[in-house]
Design goal:
The longest helix is centred in the first third of the chain and has 17 residues. This protein is mainly β. It is built from one helix and eleven strands, in the order H-E-E-E-E-E-E-E-E-E-E-E. A seven-stranded mixed β-sheet has the order 1-3-4-5-10-11-2, with no helix packed on it. Strands 6-7-8-9 form a four-stranded antiparallel β-sheet, with no helix packed on it. It is globular, with a radius of gyration of 16 Å.
């Protein structure tokens, strides 16, 4: 492998890893957050994600791009003991006790028995994703 190719791959991995740490702060209006998908290119492909925090809230949300142009917005707080789950490709993994969820927050493996809190979404014809900040209960 050429040195230039190696440096390029290493830089891409570093940038991708750092992107997973970034949290976008958003301003809710009337209990909703609106995101232009054009402004968030990671959400334009399945497997893409965005971590966001509504202003004035301690609540972190994961916006996850699914196949078919749909989205799931979930709380990353594991229902077992309250640890923050990590995004790991097609799964969300709890680092504390190994619970595993799919990208829509459904339980794949315990010890947790309950799905992650999920938030209703809508995508408008002009590619604006609306997130309703009141979680749906499973």
């Amino acid at each position: 492998m050429k040195r230039r190719d190696f440096v390029g791959l290493a830089a891409a991995g570093w940038v991708g890893g750092c992107a997973s740490l970034v949290v976008t702060t958003v301003r809710p209006v009337n209990g909703r957050v609106r995101l232009s998908l054009r402004d968030h290119p990671l959400l334009n492909r399945p497997g893409g994600f965005l971590k966001l925090r509504p202003e004035g809230s301690n609540q972190l949300l994961y916006v996850l791009a699914l196949s078919g142009g749909s989205f799931a917005v979930v709380s990353p707080i594991c229902k077992h003991l309250g640890c923050t789950v990590n995004i790991d490709g097609p799964r969300l993994l709890c680092p504390c006790h190994g619970s595993m969820y799919d990208r829509d927050g459904s339980v794949l493996r315990g010890p947790t028995q309950a799905p992650l809190d999920r938030f209703q979404t809508e995508v408008s014809s002009d590619d604006v994703l609306t997130i309703y900040l009141e979680p749906r209960r499973a």
